[in-house]
Amino acid sequence: MSEISGTSSSYLDQLRWQDEGTEINTEPKDTMLSQEDFFSLLTQQLAYQDPFKPVENAEMVSQMSSFTTAEGIGQLNEQMTGLNDIMSSSQALQASSLVGQKVLVPTGYSYKSDTTGVEGVVSLSAPTTNVTVRIENTRGEVMHSFAMGEQEAGNVRFDWDGTDTEGNQLPPGNYVVKAYALQGDSSEELPISTYAKVDSVSISGANGVALNLQGIQGGFRLSDVLEVAKG
Asked: Of 179, 190, 194, which is closest to residue 224 (Cα–Cα)?
């Protein structure tokens, strides 16, 4: 009886030592089906198929085509993600060179500093008479206006020196520039663009690269820039 007990104890100890010496691999396994795994499964399918109901060639080709297409789409997505990262980096590099420069953007909302006025462009689709540029404050009050007369079609430049109708220098801040022309018996508002200084560049995943302009809230896309000039 004691021999049996001793043998059992020795056997259990041996099993315990084996368990303690065995390392359990807890690393997560890759569950992605590779091309090699797919062809291995396809080979098994062919080996164990019913000889009286073999897999049709068309079905086999369809399975292989579906897997190849899915794998190709996955690779294409990876390549497009890499290309998008490269393009974003390139745009950021281009935009950073604009910091401190003046850019022409399609907006009449502008900023006047202590020493500068506002420059811009009025866009005319046809020859127009009686072109007038009007400067308003953010409350819509007219601070200054000047006539540009008759103009041909194209981009007509203007330069406001920052003064009011009496020649007094207006305080720095935001102003709205509007342009009008006489079309028949009515006055029509014209498209306008203004120059602004680039203060900084913002980079975000959703919106890409944005230019932050002096005194103007909200960024402009690099593609919105119509012209670049010295600051």
From this structure: 194
What's the predicted TM-score (pTM) here?
0.59
Task: State the Rg of the chain over Cα.
Answer: 37
Class of domain 102-229: mainly beta
Strands 227-229 and 102-105, bridge-based pairing: antiparallel
Question: Once rounded to an integer, what is the mean pLDDT over residues 103-123?
Answer: 92
**Residue 221: band (very low, low, confident or very high) from pLDDT cuts 50, 70, 90:** confident
φ/ψ of residue 89, rounded to 5:
-65, -40
36 — pLDDT class (breaks 50, 70, 90): low
Tokens of 226: 């119509």
Rounded to the nearest 10°, the torsion over CA 106, 109, 111, 116 is 60
Q: List, for residues 57-92, the tens digit of each pLDDT value.
A: 556 556 666 656 655 566 656 655 554 554 456 666
CA 140 centroid distance within chain: 33
Task: List the domain boundaries for the chain.
Answer: 102-229
Cα–Cα distance for residue pair 61/78, rounded to 1 Å: 26
Q: Which residues contact 170 (CB under 8 A, 6 or more apart)?
A: 112, 143, 144, 162, 163, 164
Contacts of 211 (CB under 8 A, 6+ apart): 95, 98, 103, 198, 201, 219, 220, 221, 222, 224, 225
